[in-house]
Specification:
The complex is a heterodimer of chains A (about 375) and B (about 140). Chain A has about 375 residues and is mainly α. Chain A is built from 19 helices and two strands. In chain A, helix 10 packs across helix 15 and helix 15 runs parallel beside helix 19. Chain A starts with 19 loop residues before the first helix and ends with a helix. Chain B has about 140 residues and is mainly alpha-helical. Chain B is built from six helices and no strands.
């Protein structure tokens, strides 16, 4: 079991650059941004004069953020340039970071400010996520305990605030913190349950519940003959090859839609920011058209991206079946039918679509996807 | 079949990852808000493709964001009449002498009050238990990882 609020061994907790020369270059580039650092500190200190935050503490926090994102997560890339560091500093949610640093230091004014500004949001979020009021209180308590810090490393209180970097908003960070606290709470409850109370379904992955039974039954009827089994095997192999050939951005888009059941408008939400990596990845590939495109990403844009991915899969699928499996055009058609026949069913049963309160939107969305797939064929 | 193959592949990918390697709240929060730049996003996206747990967390947070925004709007509409009503009830209790009709008036008042409110606020309140229930089930779903 993993407790997120307590554990800090995470993927992006990495060391600095590997070679001494790149380390020196990095430090030089950081030093070149000293004026920007001073400027944002001065701005924050003016905005929150009551908070006790020494310049060194704030600058340390900013450098930790740069280390984490431009060096740690960008591992393998060249040393971050002065321009990249400047841009990064400019994009930070500096006032949120200033508040977090002040709270890490145990500043009373900062804590009052935090409580006044975020407590009601934390409460609303917790009550939204858990069924019972007492559980919600437990979640809020565990979040506050983590924020205050209970562990002592070298006699120092270690606050969760220290892990906030200002890359996203403080509210977004708190939302994730609450979510992980809820998971910890539920996992704790399940660990306490006697073995006989565990339902068999609980051990199965979410995706295997509800859908695969129906689909499997239909498939069995349809693929009864040995010949069909052969085509089915070829279809699966070619499809796997086609999916493996996709870029990670494309795969993530498909996973959000098909596996996690996100609706098109929900996916559009992640890519709403012009800086969103998925959005920029897709837009780079259609630059000319995007020049005249407004900032807002609509469901139709996400649909277009999905269509592009389907087209790419289909092209690769054809090539694989023809070249690696030696199938002719008629046989490829059979495989194509096998590959797409249960897609309509899976869309009907998609949790995202089933949950939708606005059935009109869900129907339109389903129609769009099905239409796109028919079009591809 | 595309959906099925994606699920199968995602499951295999998740199993291949070490159990204790996950993105922290800071990186997940920044990703969900679309704040990550070109240098840092590729490794994070690769992780999200492979790690079902982190991917599901991001997906749930996206859903949560839209629910909470909707609730915020309905709370905003609800708050003031509620406080005003409490104030008026206090005032009425102090100034009006008790009489038999009061019982009838107190009984009928909530219905009248709810009819007067904005239809969206009423709808949001009706929808609230459903939202709570579905959201409460989600963390259990994450146990699959």
């Amino acid at each position: 079991m993993r407790h997120y609020l307590a554990n800090s061994e995470l993927i992006d907790d990495r060391s600095r650059l590997v070679t001494p020369s790149s380390e020196t270059e990095y430090l030089d580039n950081l030093t070149a941004c000293a004026a920007e650092l001073d400027a944002i500190y001065a701005r924050c200190a003016r905005a929150c004069p009551d908070f006790d935050v020494p310049p060194a503490d704030f600058k340390d926090a900013v450098i930790r953020a740069i280390d984490k994102y431009l060096v740690g997560l960008a591992a393998g890339r060249k040393t971050p340039s002065t321009r990249e560091i400047r841009q990064f500093i400019g994009e930070l949610h500096d006032l949120d970071l200033f508040l977090a640093v002040a709270c890490t230091r145990g500043d009373e004014h900062a804590w009052w400010h935090f409580d006044r500004q975020h407590r009601s949001y934390l409460e609303r979020l917790s009550h939204h996520l858990v069924r019972y009021g007492m559980d919600a209180d437990e979640v809020i308590d565990s979040v506050y305990v983590a924020l205050l810090g209970t562990k002592t490393a070298r006699d120092a209180r270690e606050s969760k605030f220290k892990t906030y970097t200002g890359r996203g908003t403080l509210r977004g960070w708190l939302r994730t913190l609450v979510w992980h606290a809820v998971i910890d709470l539920y996992r704790g409850r399940q660990a306490e349950m006697p073995l006989e109370d565990w339902s068999e379904n609980d051990d199965k992955p979410l995706e295997s519940q509800g859908r695969s039974g129906d689909v499997g039954g239909t498939e069995e009827l349809m693929l009864a003959s040995v010949v069909r089994q052969r085509y089915r095997a070829a279809t699966i192999a070619a499809l796997d090859e086609s999916l493996a050939a996709l870029d990670d951005h494309e795969t993530l888009l498909l996973l959000y839609y098909h596996v996690e059941g996100l609706k098109l408008r929900e996916i559009a939400r992640i890519v709403e920011q012009p800086t969103s990596p998925i959005r920029r990845w897709f837009q780079r590939r259609s630059k000319r058209r995007d020049q005249a495109r407004p900032n807002r990403v609509h469901e139709s844009t996400v649909m277009r991206w999905l269509e592009k991915v389907y087209r790419k899969i289909l092209e690769r699928f054809h090539t694989e079946l023809k070249n690696n499996h030696g199938l002719n055009a008629a046989e490829i058609e059979i495989c194509m039918a096998i590959a797409t026949e249960d897609l309509g069913q899976s869309l009907n049963l998609s949790p995202g679509l089933a949950e939708s309160k606005n059935s009109g939107v869900a129907e339109a969305e389903k129609g769009q996807v099905e239409g796109a797939l028919r079009g591809q064929r | 079949m595309i959906g099925q193959r994606l699920k199968t592949r995602a499951q295999v990918g998740s199993e291949a990852l070490p159990l204790d390697v996950h993105l922290d709240e800071d990186a997940i929060g920044a990703f969900v808000e679309g704040r990550l730049g070109d240098p840092e996003s590729p490794s994070l996206i690769t992780h999200l493709v492979a790690c079902g747990f982190c991917r599901r967390t991001t997906a749930e947070l996206i859903r949560l964001e839209s629910h909470i925004d909707v609730e915020d709007e309905s709370i905003g509409e609800d708050k003031n009449p509620g406080r005003l009503r409490v104030f008026l009830e206090h005032l009425a209790a102090r100034t009006i002498a008790p009489a038999e009709e009061d019982a009838v008036f107190a009984y009928q008042n909530p219905a009248e009050d709810s009819d007067e409110r904005a239809p969206q606020a009423t709808e949001a309140r009706r929808a609230e238990p459903v939202q709570k229930e579905s959201a409460a089930e989600s963390p259990n779903d994450l146990e699959t990882d």
